[in-house]
Amino acid sequence: MNKNKLVKKWGSGLLAGTLIIGSLAPIAHPYTVSAAENKVQQVAAAGQGSVTDTMFEDLNGNAKQDSGEQGVAGIKVELHNDQGALVATATTGADGKYEFANLADGTYYLHVDLSTLPTDEKLYTTEGINGADGNSSYFTISGGNTVTGYHFGFYPQQGAIQSFVYNDSNKNGQKDGGESGINNVHIALYNESGTKVADTTTDSNGAYSFSGVKPGKYYAKADIPNNYKYQSSTYFGSDGTTGYFSVGSEQTVQNELNLGLTALNNSAVNGAVKDATTGAGIANTRVELHDVQGTLIQTAQTASDGTYSFTGLEQGNYYTKVVIPTGYNYASGNGYGSDGNSNYIALTGDNTASGYAINLQKQANATIAGVLNTPSGLGIDGQNVSLYTVDGTLVKTVATNSDGDFRFSSLPEGDYYVKAPIPDGYTFDSSYGFGNDGNSYYLHVDGNGNINNLRLTLAQKVGQIRSTVFGDLNKNGTQEVSESGIPGATVTLYSVSGAVVDTATTDANGLYKFENIAPNNYYVKVTPPAGYNVLANSAFGSDGVSGYVQVQSQQTITNLNASLVVQVNPAEVSTAQWIYNKDGSTPAVNNSSTLTIANNYYDSYNNPNINVQFYNKDGGVVQTTGFTATFSNPGLVTPIYSNSQLLAFSHSDKTGSTLVTVRDSKGNVVRTFTIVVTASDVKASDVVLGASNINTIIGGTGKVSATVQPTTTTNKTLSYTPADPSIITVDANGNWTAHKAGTTTIAVRTTDGSNITKTITVNVGESVVVKEENIPNYPDDVITEGKNIYIDTAFTNTYNSHDMNFREYDTAGNMLNSSNYVYTSSDTSVLAPKADQGDNWNRLLVVGAGTATITVKDKAGNTVRTFIVHVAQANTTVKATDLTLSASNITANVADTGKVSATVSPANTTNKALSYTSADPSIITVDANGNWTAKKAGTTTIAVKTLDGSNITKTINITVADPNAVADMKWINNKDASKPSIANGGTISIANDYLDSYNNKNVNVQFFNQNNQLLSTAGWTVTLSDPTLVTPITGNPVLLAFTHTDKTGSTLVTVKDASGKIVRTFTITVTGKSIADRVKSADIELVNLRPNTGSTGTNAYIYPHSADVPAGVTYSIETYLDQTGAQLSNITVGTTNGAYHQELHSTTPQAAWAQQGTTIKVYATYQGVKYLVLEDAAYKYYSLQTTHVWAD
User: Name one GO cellular component term (predicted).
Assistant: First the structure.
């Protein structure tokens, strides 16, 4: 835009340069015109032209106002001439229009005061006006024309709220998939000042929403239905009201305002009615639920298990009543009395009262009776008779009396049966009410019934004997499966007096039987058939007579089995044995047996004979006189018949086999068997060694060379046994490995029983030379195997170290790598191996007096050397006299490492060991060797102490810094330029009108480390105990800002760094009045004919106190008639401008203010929020012709 460069706009005034062309039009007294609520202040001369347009919500973004697009009020528009002089101002009204009329011809431009643009709208489109500075292009008024086309288009900066009211059935505080919404719940939305801005109700899914919500702070209130109660919510409290929450521009607050409820009619009562005797439930019993006034609420019938349940109950106190069924009495109860009424039950609407139980018992006056007798009518006494319920539960047992009667009395109503076991010796004859098994039919009695005609008649029974006479082949007295019965044996039954009762003969299976035996005592005698004898067993003696046998009624005795054996022929061969073996064995010679011998076999009498003896069935030796033997190979063995107790077969060194057939003196073949003669083993006679000595070194390997003589030896296997396997080992094949230096032997031995042993001498030499070095005043010492070394506890090497040093060399004198050798000590309290220090020495620390065997092994595990060190207690122990530290202070950062340097004096101190102790290991740690690691920022000490009893301690001061740790927090950008440090847990207090040095409502803090270096706040987070008091701004990487409103209160601020560590907690306290309180700071006067004001009638005057009331507050008064509540008037008094001693005056008269019976309500509207300032009787503020007196 081209303007006169010598004129620049400055607010609504004028800044002129040194040269002004022309002159400004005379400024007339300003006057005010109104059109469609637009206000224009005219400060220049009038003409016929005009400028007009509309500021509107351009919802479709086409830069034109369309139907439905509302105007935007409150925007200040200035008209300037081409010299920059202010011609007029206008403010858009509710329709968004502005107009400058009666303009003289000339060139003009418009300026929009951008500070008056609404905060709840964003500039969307522009037409003719620059949105950056609010200036239009130049335009010309000529001939009274009207200029238009200079406007702003806006878009509402509105948000939305979308959430649910739902049944939080699992009470987990979140809406889950199966949890239904609650419909028709009323929810109201209020702005920060408490004015309701919207209402809604939840739909069938429990969803509700508010749309078109202007950016700002709000709270919501839900009317919780009577049949529900509060359960859970992030924002809602138990009264249905939320805390303050913010809705941003074009932000949708979704599901954050969910409200979880639980039904109040969701309580239940559970219980049971049970039989006190059986514990079983009693079905179909009526149970009633009453309130405490006795009103019947619900009824229920118990289920088959006796349980009942009342559900869907609302909050309140109740009791249940069990209607006790006929035939039952109260027995006991849990929560119940004898009248069937329960205790009072308190329900919350969502709880379950369970465990209520009443136990009833059946009335017990019934009787069941009967008799047990014989067919002749005699009672059977002393017999137990039992009564059972039909489910098999025993009720009681009684015994019959001398008349056979039984009785069960005092029975409750029920179904029963009687069980009368039929006694031994009796059988069922007849009955009334019983079956033939002694069990009655089911019997039903009520609580007072009688059944007394039961009868069970029993007849006496007889017994029998059924057993077997058998051939006992194995003579064990018991019949086996392979042993058959013997027919034709005579068996006689006798009474105890010896009278024959009955006689029987065994059948083809050896069975005999005596039937229909009267119960009594008897005995039995068996007479075997010819050729058999009776063998005594458990039932019979060898004479065939049994012991006394008691036969009972209905009893069958089956265990009187008689064992018979065939009469034996002593000359008949039954078995044979090979006897007189040197090992004492007597193998059986059965038909088809094979007797195998070597051709050098000799019997126990050193004869080359095989001796066979024969036995009859009784085990007696059968004489061999007259026996003969024939052979299939007669030349192999020769029979010897001279001994009548056996047959002998003499062999030679011939090998082979022959079938032998032996006949008795009658020519009967008694045995056939085979004799096999084999060649004898060839035993070793000598072992020849390839070498009788083995000379090797550690790690050497080889094989023993040995030959068994003669070459025909049957078993040439040898064994190899080293006398000392630690020196050399040998496997089963003679392969050997040398392990350590020394001399031993290997025994080489035959394994064929010849017991020939040859010995090899083994000498294992050293492959490694071990030397002790650094011996004070002594040359290096070669350590030979088994060497003894003598030192004392004061020993130190040439480096004054309290240890012995060793190195390893090959036999050519070349130094070896000491890390390939491991030293172990048999007693580490005397000598202890030390860790490798990288200087190719193996070390043994001298610990104390005693003797230790040291073993040196190579990596293969071979023992290179063993030697013994004797450590004597030194006569003089040199203790430390001083401890020198290289540094008495350590300054480090977190994660730094280092080592404490300390020297013990004198140099020959016996024990120079030190301990290192950190006073605070959380700041710094130190190991046994003085190595330290800094852990966290702070100060502490390390104590260095001698361990030889001298108790010398030196202290190192430690300071650990953390370059990233917060050491200080400063409150910056204060208008007074102060930068106070705020301690951890400290408080920042501000008034609610506080502004920083940039005129922002921000509290700004920066963080510094202990070196006063500024720390970055990138990635830091902030949590607030009251998020409504201040809003954190974390976008600046070098500070945190907290924006406050006019709200007062305190909030705890917790600041965490990017790793989540808390670096600061402090409190921000905002003091002062809220806007709701500030707008009440005004004097209200209703004055009739106030002097010098031009008032007619009674006018309203409001005098705001500028120290409290900001500019832009509009005051209004509503007047109501007390009797009817009808509104009499609603007038706007005026809007504050922040000026000192401002008077707001409404010229609209209201005579009713002077009368009693009228009430005024004074409201203050600020930034779209309406606050109630006063509600009182109007006459209290009425006066006549008074003048206002300012209090300040």
Answer: extracellular region
- DSSP tag of 981: B
Q: What global pTM score does this model have?
A: 0.29
Last residue of a domain, one of 346, 362, 378: 362
Same domain, 1063 and 1083: no
Same domain as 449, residue 368: yes
- 357 and 368 part of one domain: no
* Distance, CA of 512 to CA of 430 (rounded, Å): 34
3-class secondary structure, 1154: helix
Q: How far is CA 715 from CA 757, 758, 1036, in A?
A: 15, 17, 99
pLDDT single digits (tens) 123-139: 888 999 987 889 998 89
Q: How far apart are CA 710 and CA 713, in angstroms?
A: 6
Q: Cα angle at 945 between 943 and 947, to 5 degrees? A: 150
Q: What is the CATH number of the domain that holds 1012?
A: 2.60.40.3440
Confidence check: pLDDT of 38 > 60? no
User: CA geometry: angle at 507 spanning 501 and 508, to 5°?
Assistant: 165
Range of the domain at 312: 267-362
Alpha carbon separation from 312 to 268, 290, 315, 347, 353 (Å, rounded): 6, 14, 10, 11, 12
Which amino acid would we find at residue 1099?
N
Domain count, the chain: 11
- Measured CA to CA, the distance from residue 407 to residue 739 in angstroms comes to 98
- Show contacts of 281-289: CB within 8 Å, 24+ apart: 281/305, 281/306, 281/307, 282/306, 282/325, 282/328, 282/360, 285/322, 285/323, 285/325, 286/322, 286/323, 287/320, 287/321, 287/322, 287/323, 288/320, 288/321, 288/323, 289/313, 289/318, 289/319, 289/320
CATH number at residue 1151: 2.60.40
| Listed residue (149, 141, 150) closest to 50, CA to CA | 141
Any domain includes 672: yes
* pLDDT, tens digit, 9 for 90 and up, residues 51-63: 999 999 888 888 8
CA dihedral angle for residue 182, residue 188, residue 191, residue 193, rounded to 10 degrees: -120
